[in-house]
């Protein structure tokens, strides 16, 4: 309300207060008769939906599949996505990041300059506009944002700049799978940081790490059920095609995940198998692998412990490809893993023996390079970061990925700060969170949590137990039929009581019950087209953390039945809510 | 805060309350030092940006152009878009519409079925995925939503269903122009209604009309400046390629608009020139136009008043194309506009005379059809809906378009309710609002409003005067340099006072001043890299409705300078905010 003294124009307060909300606070509670939330029976989901949590998302009316790797988000799914977004927005803005939106359909010129038009290969959706200009559907926005910020910032005084967006991204997945986890079109948060030197960029990287920690702690939070275990972890990761100096993945442990993470049993060390390291243990038995340079100029013999696996990055580090078994190299170079510390003479014998049957005309050994890291870390290996720990392997869903990019993009596109000899390229970082993947990972845990909480096998029910911060609604008020005016009045009074922020201590036979549910988060099941039983079943499937039932017990005793996600049921006398 | 009596687990209230907001209420106020909002000088915008409001959006740091017809929205633009979205969300949900999100990348199969793959022509962005499957970037979602709802609803009991989304749409515009008004990628709200019969569908159409009225009244609201004129209007429109039975466009009057609307000076009648009608006035002088059927089987002579223009839809109604001047038709049919009521014999003479010089071998007149509507309505014509009004022409920006679709899509795709002989196709409506176009139209008016409010030519400034409901911020607190701890403390105290919802009546020399600005809507200009003058200039350019200056006047007298969008400046003593 803004009243200007002289003019006395009153702007109606409804308008003044209702900004910035994804849905109206005025529409309290949300009536299920007006919310499109179709639930499905167990047999309505196809056998192809092999993932239990996806089946439940379909059955609960959260999502629908539109094509392979493509989903429509229904109102309940949208509410969860909006809550996840809300948490991300808060934590991003807490570290001074501003929200922007860049186009999804981009010209290809900048991508040619950075070399990613080729590097992204067939994962990139490409098209041509009516004039024949080559365009792409953005899978990420490093090029675009580098130009946006780089073309306007020319002084270190204006840095740091941190901008992020939450929007659709596209990737031409060869094998869309696992429901929301690997899709052709997905919702992503992408943050970009710009600093004037490497130290400042590292400080930005650390700030984002703390923000990510807050985000995932808030999103994956089942504390209200007494669950204190953290389900996510940050792991060292490979920078891959994105480039840059270092990188972390954020994972949620899950058997359907596509990543394998090795984590220490004793310390906080965690890394993707792609780049995990372990403490070298002296080896007793050895193997020799043959590789070559791409141009076949040199043959390489790699000496590793017998049971070890070559590290996926080792080949790249030395510029090697598999030996083609042909031709004759002049030189034979020997690379020795740090776990195989041996005198050069012994190594020569091992190499000669190891390749004697494979190479007809063995070249002379030209160099021996010991103490390199050739082996991938494996479960059971001793941790490289602490004295006592051993590495354990977990399957995990990658929900976030951060990269300290350095000057990879600013150099390629020519953007920097300062002038003349003082001019330096912008130092960048980029940071993603897969918003729809977070929803998929949440669903996996929430379905397992349901099973854990509902051990009574006779119920034969299924559903979700969501974290409070992201549940589509905090509470459901469910009056049994018939929906008499008196009962609906009581139901509305209950909604208002829950809503007003000063809910009294309600007395139950087992002690006081303190509840406060924000008003915009209450659903009222006023549907008359469904049976009472079907609506109770729906409530379980959808997974409301609190369900208030005005049924037979209420009619007889005046007590409201309160079902809590943890499995507890309480009966409460609530003033003003009596039959 | 939710405290469970038995477990005594307290969920921290910050998490509990902060859902559903586009940005954090906790971050109060927003500090401009951490908001990416680069303003540009007048000469930094290119001469090609011929539209004044676009120049101002660029200069004020609202948007940046990324390519022809493609824009990035910067934080200030995003805040406005989020506010417009918030209003749309509220009004959609007030009529029982649920928010969903469908994919933007769609398969082409359904579009082939409805015939729109061909009908949309080169406006549709087309591409192929890695398997060669034909895909499109959705310009709209009738096909997809018809399948989504149609495949799950099979009983009239489950209707009505109303679902909407707010997301990116794509159109391969041949001539992107006018800044945000005609772009290749834009933000649109699209609502779809499903009913079981035509009457219910009409009721839905009427509900949406009222919701649209609320939306545009709230968005285009300069009442705080004493402006009561409505800048938008609903006009009857052609259904075009979308199909259906009737249609309305929602326009904002503006000289840069691409549509021309004819509106009655006396009644509420308004229609796009494409379909406007006017009262027939008896004509004195006549013209004869020649047309033919596509197969040249019949020649048509159209008799109209001399000065009249053929209605764009008349040709389509009679299945005519322009006469190719060749061949010889056996029959000559005569169509006579209702303004040319004449005896058949007179008409025969007029037609023979009118075409004598153009057709060598004039066929005999086979039929004469009088009282048809052939003429387009023109400015100055008498209104067809009321006795006294005359039509006036306005250039206008189309910001919304609604269609009563009938069964155009449900029949083509085979979706209906009921079974056997009782089965009927779904009755649909579709309803768009161009969200980024609304921003463009707002900018046009807000720039003109600034000029109107700032008649003092010597100031030579430019900027926006936004409606309160959609301004990026409601208020700015601007301390002059140096930013001493005392001054920043006073600035923060002022923000807190504005924020707490119980702002006192501040006394000024000219009477009390009542202000309430929601806390999440205050910006604090704490930038030290810019001069005081540059920041004052920025404040004008961006267009904060209220600016509180802690400058020299405040240092001397303790009074805060309050600049209001209307041009008024007041000085107020505010307790706790003194030097």
From TrEMBL, chains A, B:
<keyword id="KW-0547">Nucleotide-binding</keyword>
<dbReference type="Pfam" id="PF00587">
    <property type="entry name" value="tRNA-synt_2b"/>
</dbReference>
<dbReference type="InterPro" id="IPR006195">
    <property type="entry name" value="aa-tRNA-synth_II"/>
</dbReference>
<dbReference type="InterPro" id="IPR002314">
    <property type="entry name" value="aa-tRNA-synt_IIb"/>
</dbReference>
<comment type="similarity">
    <text>Belongs to the class-II aminoacyl-tRNA synthetase family.</text>
</comment>
<dbReference type="InterPro" id="IPR045864">
    <property type="entry name" value="aa-tRNA-synth_II/BPL/LPL"/>
</dbReference>
<dbReference type="InterPro" id="IPR036621">
    <property type="entry name" value="Anticodon-bd_dom_sf"/>
</dbReference>
<dbReference type="InterPro" id="IPR050062">
    <property type="entry name" value="Pro-tRNA_synthetase"/>
</dbReference>
<dbReference type="InterPro" id="IPR002316">
    <property type="entry name" value="Pro-tRNA-ligase_IIa"/>
</dbReference>
<dbReference type="GO" id="GO:0005739">
    <property type="term" value="C:mitochondrion"/>
</dbReference>
<dbReference type="GO" id="GO:0006433">
    <property type="term" value="P:prolyl-tRNA aminoacylation"/>
</dbReference>
<feature type="domain" description="Aminoacyl-transfer RNA synthetases class-II family profile">
    <location>
        <begin position="64"/>
        <end position="479"/>
    </location>
</feature>
<dbReference type="GO" id="GO:0005524">
    <property type="term" value="F:ATP binding"/>
</dbReference>
<keyword id="KW-0648">Protein biosynthesis</keyword>
<keyword id="KW-0067">ATP-binding</keyword>
<dbReference type="GO" id="GO:0004827">
    <property type="term" value="F:proline-tRNA ligase activity"/>
</dbReference>
<keyword id="KW-0030">Aminoacyl-tRNA synthetase</keyword>
<protein>
    <recommendedName>
        <fullName>proline--tRNA ligase</fullName>
        <ecNumber>6.1.1.15</ecNumber>
    </recommendedName>
</protein>
<keyword id="KW-0436">Ligase</keyword>
């Amino acid at each position: 309300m803004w009243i200007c003294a002289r003019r006395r124009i009153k702007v109606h307060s409804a308008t003044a207060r209702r900004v910035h909300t994804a849905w109206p606070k005025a529409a309290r509670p949300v009536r299920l008769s007006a919310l499109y939330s179709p639930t499905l029976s167990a047999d309505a989901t196809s056998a192809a939906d092999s993932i239990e949590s996806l089946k439940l998302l379909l059955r609960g009316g959260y999502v629908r599949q539109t094509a392979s790797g493509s989903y429509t988000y229904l109102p309940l799914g949208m509410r969860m996505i909006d809550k996840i977004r809300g948490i991300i927005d808060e934590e991003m803005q807490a570290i001074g990041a501003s929200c922007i939106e860049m186009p999804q359909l981009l010209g290809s010129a900048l991508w040619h300059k950075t070399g990613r038009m080729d590097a992204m290969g067939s994962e990139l959706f490409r098209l041509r506009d009516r004039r024949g200009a080559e365009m792409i559907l953005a899978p990420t926005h490093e090029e675009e944002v580098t130009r946006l910020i780089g073309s306007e910032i020319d002084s270190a005084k204006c840095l740091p700049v941190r901008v992020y967006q939450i929007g659709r991204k596209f990737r031409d997945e060869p094998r869309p799978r696992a429901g929301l986890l690997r899709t052709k079109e997905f919702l992503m948060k992408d943050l970009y940081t710009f600093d004037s030197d490497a130290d400042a960029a590292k400080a930005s990287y650390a700030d984002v790490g703390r923000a990510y920690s807050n985000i995932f702690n808030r999103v994956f939070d089942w504390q209200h059920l007494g669950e204190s275990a953290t389900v996510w972890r940050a792991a060292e990761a490979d920078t891959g095609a994105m480039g840059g100096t270092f990188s972390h993945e954020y994972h949620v442990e899950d058997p359907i995940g596509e990543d394998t993470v090795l984590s220490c049993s004793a310390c906080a060390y965690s890394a993707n198998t792609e780049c995990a390291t372990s403490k070298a243990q002296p080896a007793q038995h050895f193997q020799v692998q043959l590789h070559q340079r791409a141009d076949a100029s040199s043959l390489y013999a790699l000496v590793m412990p017998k049971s070890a696996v070559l590290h996926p990055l080792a080949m790249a580090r030395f510029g090697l490809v598999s030996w083609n078994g042909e031709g004759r190299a002049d030189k034979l170079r020997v690379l020795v893993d740090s776990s195989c510390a041996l005198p050069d003479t012994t190594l020569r014998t091992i190499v000669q023996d190891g390749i004697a049957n494979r190479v007809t005309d063995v070249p002379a050994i030209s160099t021996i390079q010991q103490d390199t890291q050739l082996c991938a870390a494996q479960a059971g290996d001793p941790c490289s970061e602490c004295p006592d720990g051993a590495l354990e392997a977990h399957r995990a869903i990658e929900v976030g990925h951060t990269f300290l990019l350095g000057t990879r993009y600013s150099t390629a596109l020519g953007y920097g700060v300062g002038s003349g000899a003082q001019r330096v390229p912008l130092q960048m970082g980029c940071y993603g969170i897969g918003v729809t993947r977070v929803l998929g990972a949440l669903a996996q845990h929430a379905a397992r949590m349901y099973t854990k909480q509902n051990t009574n096998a006779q119920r034969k029910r299924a559903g979700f137990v969501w974290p409070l911060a992201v549940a589509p609604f905090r509470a459901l008020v469910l009056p049994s039929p018939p929906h008499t005016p008196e009962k609906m009045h009581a139901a509305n009074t209950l909604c208002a009581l829950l809503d007003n922020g000063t809910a009294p201590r309600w007395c139950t036979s087992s002690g006081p019950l303190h509840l406060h549910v924000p008003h915009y988060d209450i659903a009222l099941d006023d549907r008359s087209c469904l049976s009472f039983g079907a609506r109770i079943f729906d409530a379980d499937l959808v997974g409301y953390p609190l369900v208030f039932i005005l049924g037979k017990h209420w009619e007889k005793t005046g007590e409201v039945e309160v079902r809590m996600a943890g499995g507890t049921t309480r009966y409460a006398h609530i003033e003003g809510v009596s039959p």
